[in-house]
Backbone:
């Protein structure tokens, strides 16, 4: 007989590739998968021994008969191993198969092993004489035993077919007979390795038909998952929208309350009432800041937080933060120090609202979590470029650092610090107001600006939060020392008279909420200006055709015609006597309240509600002068 060694080696390689491929496909570790894998390995082992024995039979005269006998016996054993694993695999799919079935199967396999072993001494199955392979007188027993194994298993499958869907049992029967069919073909054709291919083929069928879930069902489940994911996204968006609109809705009445309260503070001479009103202001402001945080969070989570970059003066940002936090620090007897590198540039290009928010969050935390000592803000600018930029402006890194001598943070807690709604040592800090959102929002804002935030802290000693944000320089001229400029600023303010008077001037206030109009009227009363009011965009447009105003205060959020639309109706109508009147936009939505956006729209100024009297008067003064 002639054998083609290259073909055999190639065939075994194909089997190995198949096994490796299967191994990759087997993504779960079910018993079925393990068994199919084991089956494939035993098939390869069997194929290798098959090839070896084919050669030793072919060139039998070159090696001793005993060695040939041993090698062939090993091949027979490996065949039994294959059958054993195959049967074990099938039994795995029929848990109802009783102990007797398992016992009979084992018994038949043991008999086969025993027969092969006995054959080595008796030659009943086969033997070698002078290098020739000779069938023994009882070789049919081996075939009979093999067939008995197959038919017994067929019986087991049929009896227990209730365990599996019909199609599966049919596939298993195919699996059962395929190697047998290939064995017969191999015997007739004489080519070796056909059995191995038959077995590998049936292993593939097992794997894909029995171990891989129904493709259509899988697709259906995947579709369902996709729909569920979409629904979850919609629900999440709805949650964010709800949060955003709720916060906005809540802000409107709070603004009313705080506005009315400002009037009480302004008009009341009664010490007791002023104290009550102060309390309302403090509680109202903290409520407002919680709502702002929630609004920010929902914007960040729904991906709708946008940065609005514009030129800003760092001194004025620091000054805003100083003015707000100075009072808080003073109440707690803390020293508040603001320092900066006097040579750093004065003007930058970035989102000033967010930079201020970051600075404020860190400062207010520093003050909140410090009982005595100092809270220090240090600002510097590193000229070294941070990344590539499309334009060739001058870039660098703005470094804002806030240190305190407060309670500090335990090393283990540093990891949770930026988690949303996470507050550390809640029991100990019960008396300190907070939601656990501030640092999360700060971190997200810093990331949006491609910056970094770092914390160093020693428990019981204090903490340092350092934020580094890439910023473009707007004006290279040195900013000067904050403390020195602050003193100059105070002198200017002190020289200013507290209120302005503008009798003879006329303003129009447009707001759909009457109370807001009332608050603004109250704040402007001392100016002695004439004040008209409109409660809708349309009414404002109509009135603007009749009377010439010096300033129009326009609420942005109004039903039907919003502030921007009303503004354009007035501005774009060249026949309107107010088409060049300065219009100040008012908005309760401090987030959307990107000043730059409104100024670009053409508004003369932007005021966020609740309107501060000082700010309002500054705007009036500026626009009237
Ligand atoms: P909030 O202050 O509203 O609780 P934050 O997100 O701002 O929420 O801070 C989360 C937690 O981190 C705080 O509850 C506090 O335990 C801790 N923390 C923040 N800043 C400091 C600080 N400067 N010193 C000590 N602990 C701080």
Residues:
């Amino acid at each position: 007989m002639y054998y083609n060694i290259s073909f055999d080696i190639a065939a075994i390689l194909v089997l190995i590739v198949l096994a490796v491929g299967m191994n990759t496909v087997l993504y779960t570790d079910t018993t079925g998968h393990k068994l199919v894998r084991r089956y494939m390995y035993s098939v390869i082992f069997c194929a290798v021994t098959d090839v070896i024995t084919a050669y030793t039979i072919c060139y039998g005269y070159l090696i001793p008969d005993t060695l040939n006998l041993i090698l062939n016996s090993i091949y027979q054993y490996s065949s039994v191993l294959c059958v054993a694993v195959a049967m074990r695999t099938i039994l795995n799919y029929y848990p109802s198969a009783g102990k007797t079935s398992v016992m009979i199967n084992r018994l038949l396999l043991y008999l086969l092993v025993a027969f092969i072993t006995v054959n080595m001494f008796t030659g009943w199955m086969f033997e070698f004489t002078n290098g020739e392979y000779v069938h023994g007188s009882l070789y049919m027993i081996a075939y009979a035993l093999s067939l008995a194994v197959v038919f017994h298993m067929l019986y087991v499958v049929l009896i227990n077919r209730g365990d599996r869907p019909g199609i599966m049992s049919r596939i298993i029967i195919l699996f059962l007979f395929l190697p047998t069919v290939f064995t017969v073909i191999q015997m007739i054709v004489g080519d070796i390795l056909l059995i191995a291919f038959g077995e590998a083929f049936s292993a593939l069928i097992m794997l894909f038909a029995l171990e891989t879930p129904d493709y259509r069902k899988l697709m259906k489940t995947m579709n369902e998952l996709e729909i569920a994911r979409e629904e979850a996204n919609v629900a999440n968006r709805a949650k964010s929208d709800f949060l955003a609109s709720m916060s906005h809705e809540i802000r409107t009445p709070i603004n009313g309350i705080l506005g009315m309260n400002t009037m009480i503070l302004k008009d009341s001479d009664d010490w007791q009432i002023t104290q009550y009103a102060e309390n309302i202001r403090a509680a109202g402001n903290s409520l407002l800041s919680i709502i702002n945080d929630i609004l920010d969070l929902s914007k960040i989570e729904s991906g709708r937080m946008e940065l609005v970059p514009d030129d800003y003066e760092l001194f004025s940002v620091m000054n805003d933060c100083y003015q707000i936090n100075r009072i808080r620090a003073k109440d707690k007897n803390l020293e508040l120090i603001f320092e900066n590198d006097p040579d750093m540039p004065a003007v930058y290009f970035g989102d000033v609202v967010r930079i201020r928010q970051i600075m404020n969050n860190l400062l207010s935390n520093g003050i909140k979590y410090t009982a005595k000592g100092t809270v220090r803000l240090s600002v510097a600018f590193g000229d070294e470029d941070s990344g590539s930029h499309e334009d060739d402006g001058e870039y660098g890194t703005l470094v804002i650092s806030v240190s305190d001598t407060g309670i500090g943070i335990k090393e283990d807690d540093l990891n949770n610090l930026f988690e949303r709604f996470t507050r550390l040592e809640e029991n100990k800090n019960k008396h300190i107001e907070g939601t656990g959102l501030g640092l999360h929002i700060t971190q997200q804002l810093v990331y949006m600006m491609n910056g970094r935030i770092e914390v160093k802290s020693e428990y019981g000693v204090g903490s340092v939060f350092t934020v580094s944000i890439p910023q473009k320089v707007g004006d290279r001229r040195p900013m000067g020392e904050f403390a020195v400029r602050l003193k100059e600023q105070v002198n200017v303010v002190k020289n200013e008279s507290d209120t302005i008077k503008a009798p003879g001037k006329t303003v129009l206030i447009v707001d759909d909420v009457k109370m807001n109009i009332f608050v603004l009227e109250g704040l402007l009363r001392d100016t002695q200006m004439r004040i008209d009011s409109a409660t809708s965009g349309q009414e404002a447009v109509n009135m603007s055709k009749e009377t010439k105003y010096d300033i129009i205060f326009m609420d942005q959020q109004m039903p039907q015609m919003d502030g921007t639309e009303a503004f354009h109706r007035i501005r774009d109508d060249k026949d309107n006597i107010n088409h060049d009147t300065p219009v100040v936009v008012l908005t309760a939505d401090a987030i959307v309240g990107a000043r730059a956006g409104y100024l670009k729209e053409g508004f003369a100024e932007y005021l966020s509600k609740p309107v501060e009297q000082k700010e309002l008067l500054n705007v009036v003064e500026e626009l009237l002068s």
User: Anything to note?
Assistant: Residues 492-497 have pLDDT under 50 and may be disordered.
